[in-house]
Amino acid sequence: MNIRRLENSVLTGVTVIAAMVWVFPLYWALVTSLRSESRVVARPGLLPDEFNIGNYADALFNTQLLTWYINSVGTAFIVTAVVIVISMMCAYALSQINFPGRRLLYLIVLASFMIPSQALVVTQFILMDQFGLINTWGGIILPQLIVPVTIIVYKQFFDSVPREMREAAVLDGGGDYAILFKLFLPLNWGITTALAIVTFIGVWNAFFWPFLVITSEDMMTIPVGITQVNDAFGLAYARLMSVALLAALPVVLAYLIFQRRVTEAVMISSGVKG
Hints:
Elements: H1 2-33, H2 37-42, H3 54-61, H4 65-96, H5 102-114, H6 121-130, H7 137-141, H8 148-160, H9 163-171, H10 176-187, H11 189-205, H12 208-213, H13 222-233, H14 237-269
Helix pairs in contact: 1-14, 3-14, 4-8, 4-11, 5-8, 11-14, 13-14
């Protein structure tokens, strides 16, 4: 019994330390963003000693932060919606419909999952240039629609659904689209929500590809726009921290709102529940 208590105490201590290590950069960014630039440079300290929201006002009104928000939200929502729908449909076909070349197609999906996205950057950039999509939302969105891992996750879930359910729906006269969206989709709302959140966060935080394909400041997304704030104002630490916190705010809110769904999805996919 004492050994069990000791183990629990050690695990609790390790968890607390890990949480503090993770939270400290966020705390430091918040404290820095609320200080004046002269205070940050002259005598930085760990404890909050100033409450200056001028940096946030500068970020909102003296940069194109709101435009970058619109670009990031728009592209992230479009990519998330398209990826979820096409991945679900593709996974349903691979899992539930017998057609020639199904196994070969699934092997191609698996192989594409193993190829690093950076290896496709040159080809994608040439294609976007030929299509005239450089410096457009289309140029940001199209290459990010390739998310094979979403197809794989959906297929694994669809494979676990009893065949009798689909057969009963077919006998009732249901087509594949009706079966997918009226039967299979309600069964996997948790997984769909989790995949949507992960995809949204990934697109929101994407830097490398938008940095390559966007050339004008009014088309930039949040991660790329932050670099322009740094270039425009030099090493303005307080202002830069305020922009970074404002940029991260939607992602944090999305996770806080949907964290229960994400937890349920992880439990379902791991076989603990259901």
